[in-house]
Fold each of these.
Amino acid sequence: MKTRRYQLRKDAVAIIQRGHPWIFREQLSSAAGVFGDGDWLRLVDGTNTVVGHGIYEAEGAIAIRMLRVGPDKPDAAYLRSQLAVALRRRTPLAARTDGIRLLHGESDGIPAVVVDRFGDTLVVASYSSGADALARYVAGVLASGAATLARADTEPTAGTSAAPSSAGGSPAPGSPLPVSDSPTIPIATATSAADRAARIAAIVGPARHVVLRPARRRRGLPLPPRVLRGSPPDVVTITEDGQTYAIDLAGGQKTGTYLDLRGLRAAIAQLPLAGKTVLNTFAYTGMLGRAAEAAGASAITHVDSSEKALAFAREHHVTDPAKHHFITADIFQWLPNHDGRYDVVIIDPPAMTSRKAQVPGVLAAYRKLYRAAARLVNPGGLVIAACCTSRIERAVFHKTVRAALGETFTRELELPAEVDHPVGFPQADYLKIALWRAQ
């Protein structure tokens, strides 16, 4: 794609040199007003040296999403190699599940594009209208088959990731954008294209169906999903750690469900819940409740504001109907007025803001939820606290939960990010999950 030149101010150049993938609108000069949504920019400093390349966004706080640091263009070969590196990091998941986030936006070096695999179906989505064209390209590469990516998955072109932005170092010119500081996956040892293709195919799957979901528009009508391959069913199934889950492709949240909660589902499934009672608030389609039933729970109460989501849960995520009870309610109103007692209470609210000014109100809502949850837990029981709001920092969330639960609760376990949801920069650390034990 043709790029347009734009000279950055010094503070914006410093952001790139620190390895952060976003330049905010307040850091741009008025000269940027000539660019259109989705324009690819060649970014230069005051000496006309190319310091990187990015995609322009016409609206919103984020004005430029970085594609590549340094003078080298982010051409098709580079993008394929970034995608191949991302897939290689997912190698450990292929033996556990066929529900995998294959690409995680900026944290995998391809901004504003995510790809979720649900069995034999791939959902490619952009969360910025300026990145829709990039999402179409990624979808095309994945639809073309493993052989295309195998050619990109070589040591000289793929290499290793730069240091994470939290380390404060500057990426080498032409390097990929920073990725997670999670344990790295060794460079592939496969020596032939056939071996590399087989490894990639195990991660990507057969990709019989490929769906493209454009970003939500700030103005005008939303663009409908496009089917690029096959005939995706409305509901697909995945297997995760031996458990089967259903995904609502036609009407589900995000790309269909929340793959980032895999670690929580695994943690719940491993709890000693034989004969125990579970309250699953913000239950959505009941996947966490299914994990609780697999762990032996004798009674699981699901509460959600969506009757449609609970109907899906009832149909797809119940083995023994006698163990499940479904309640449609506004949880913020229902929980403080509820008088039940449980061995496990799960609090997993949706993201409630993307604006800094709204954070105090969200924290107040959290305090209300966890004060209500604390009085419902049996001695020795658990509160599972989750937050998926990136504006709320990890330490602030834990401090808020601790204060609301009271001194009788101790944080027993904090779950790390899943390998397919790497944390490549501070704002990507959105999901916080901890288990709190009552005395």
Amino acid sequence: MRAHEAGALHAEGYRGPAWLETPFDVNALVPSLWASSVTRDGDGVVTVGGVPATRLAREFGTPAYVIDETDFRHRAREFKQQYAAEFTPLSGADVFYAGKAFLCTEIARWVEREGLNLDVCTGGELAVARRAGFPGSRIGMHGNNKSVAEIRGGLEYGVARIVVDSFEEIERIADVAAQLGVVAPVLVRVNVGVEAHTHEFIATAHEDQKFGLSLAGGQALEAVRRILARPDTLRLLGLHSHIGSQIFDTSGFEVSARRVLGLHAMLTKELGADLPELDLGGGFGIAYTTEHDPQPASRLAADMADIVERECRAEGVPVPRISVEPGRAIAGPSTFTLYEVGTVKPVALDGGACRVYVSVDGGMSDNIRTALYDAHFSCTLANRCSPAAPALARVVGRHCESGDIIVMDEFLPGDVGAGDLIAVPGTGAYCRALSSQYNHTPRPPVVAVRDGAARVIVRRETIDDILALDV
């Protein structure tokens, strides 16, 4: 909908997106959007893990990321258990938590204790894992442009695998392995040419983008040949494919698996390669709003097991050990961001409509996804229930950008005002990880809640922290 020259939001009679319905009860919480322990208490206050949002705001300030530890760990455990149940009869499966979604030392400890492996993309993420004592033998390294220092750090720590993303990287890894006197375990990231039905910036397996080596163009095969020619420094574990993020069904994985297993079979039969592993990536979607209908881990695991077994049977090859990389699906729903309202501004729209602009004390510095991906979020009034009628609202930040929007369209009580608390669910993935210091705004803390107790696992940044970097 882009009929107006200034965009759809200025079109006559704009009432929000088609999926957004006026709620019967503007105070109701939609369960699919929130961590499992989130509810309202007898006073109408949103609580998580038995802790009221009002207490969290009072003790830790706003904005703050609030994570339900039990919910996070349950989702991690569910992925491990469901993939083990479906793939153990075949050849087994490993679940790598994608640290890029959100990682700190305490999160790394939770992931380790729940028995998952960990995927890191940079030397910084590897440093977090090391500080948490995460075993190198359960770490995989990603990245399209790993430095020599990062490769060296990974090999010295004994990571389980490095995902190769270019011809240059093959030589880089081999050289570092030779210097260290080790054989580097590697996977080849294959670009399978699948168009995932997601935003352009988070679709990662079509041809015209930076990740992977093309299957259709022959680069993936050539990469395998080069790795097999270096048995003294490189050990090829298998292939890797990742088609994007925020994906809601397994149809894309089916096409991806068919194509990458075709290459897997050819390498096994024609080159005699021993490829014990296959990584099908992650990208499993979550519910940010009522328009989203994500699949549970049990369904994802069952569907993927069926796909892999069927394709391997068709190719006449044994089923390799499968890996998947959920990040958003574990971290995202476990967290909400808590803000305080500062300014409320009703704005008249064309066609007699009205929107209430609700300005909060955070913004694009703590949640860039709306501006970056056109992402949609929901929200609720968190410090009370309201008898007021629902009003179409837009929750915006305090930064000097018109695009500083947190929640594009949602209904809030018409009496929302300064001092109220707003909770935005689904912010556990890529919000703190992509946060910034725009306008010299310190980043919020991460507060973990469990069994009626709350504690800081990442402290609030301060102005002194920011100024400390100035020389």
Amino acid sequence: MKKWKKVLCAAIVASAAVCTVSTVMAASVDLNAVYGISSNEREGWPQGPEISCNTGILMEAETGAVLYEKGADELRYPASITKLMTLLVAVENSSLDEEVTFTETGVRDVTPDSGNIGMQLGEVMTMEDCLYAMIIYSANEVSAQIAEHVGGTEQNFIDMMNARAAEIGCTNTHFANASGLPDDSQYTTARDMALIFREGLENETYRKILNTPTYVIPATNKNSEERKLHTHHPLFAEESALYYPGCIGGKSGMTNDAGYTLVTGVEQNGVTYIAVVLRAVDLSQACVDSRQLFDYGFQNFQKTEYKNGSVMLPNTMTTDQIEEKEVDSQDGKMYQFYVSGQLMGTAKVPEPTAAPVPTVSEEEPVEEVDPADEEPLYQEESAAEAGTETQKKTAELTDRIVILLIIMGVMILLLVVLLAALHHKKKKRSNKKHRNKK
């Protein structure tokens, strides 16, 4: 069954792989470009912080509202935040109890210059152990082995990643491997990574793995010792000076060209923010920039219930400043809520209910009654009622008499039977005495 599932996945993603070739060839990453904070140009918008990372974005997860953007659609290398896409495709196409056997595909990345947990050829771990090793420890060899196991081949899994990214709405992303190791044809944007992370948070297993700071991999068939993993994400580790309250996890990455990349989720008071910063000079700076974005969001915006949905509003604005647009979607008609020209929330348009049809009844004409006739009429009705009542009582008495007669009949019958039995018994004794005398 799993084999057929993988064959089907291969067929689905094949066309997507072909369609992305021209895009990949044309894409180029300009690492020298400098971008301004475009969200600061919105009318009446709270001015956002000047982060040091090349590009960045702050998105609210439920509504998809973008509160802050700096070069959010500019191409950058993702490094190990690629594994957030690998995790999504893996949890959607496998079960946690599957056994993953490591092949040459996996162990080839067990090198001193590649993050790994030292997996060996033929070593077996569950998919659950593999996913935690990939996210918490950023193990590259585990990422490659997950790809081969789930996709049938590593390349097929990569095609699945690209097809899924396109389905989510990523328009400036291309993956060339499952780990994030350097590759000129692997790129993304802050916006696309926020969309991928947002999609992942809708998956319970995905969210659970992200929200686990410490995990222990038990001994395997090739390793007699357990492996203890602990998060490297400073905003998620409670012992870190950079820890941010409400952090639900994320992923960091680093290569020479990518610099330091960081994706983080924070949830407070029913609001979940996603911050993505790309190409920081070091991890500490990426964390500082992310913290600034979270502070900016929590201090300047509020989530407001509006028309069966939610909308993000700057603290200085009211619902009177919301512009509505009705659109068709797969789920039916939807309201889109815009603030300062930006999509800040949605709600489903309630289906119109049919107006109740009044029941038309013809009133019977009421005859005028002469007051002189009213009393006799009442008396006649009373007499009729009295007769009916007498009939009821007579019927009830008759029923009781019948029941009494039946009971008496049954008692007489029982008495007859009893007397007959006594007579028979007496006769039997008499015959016995007569025989004894003889």
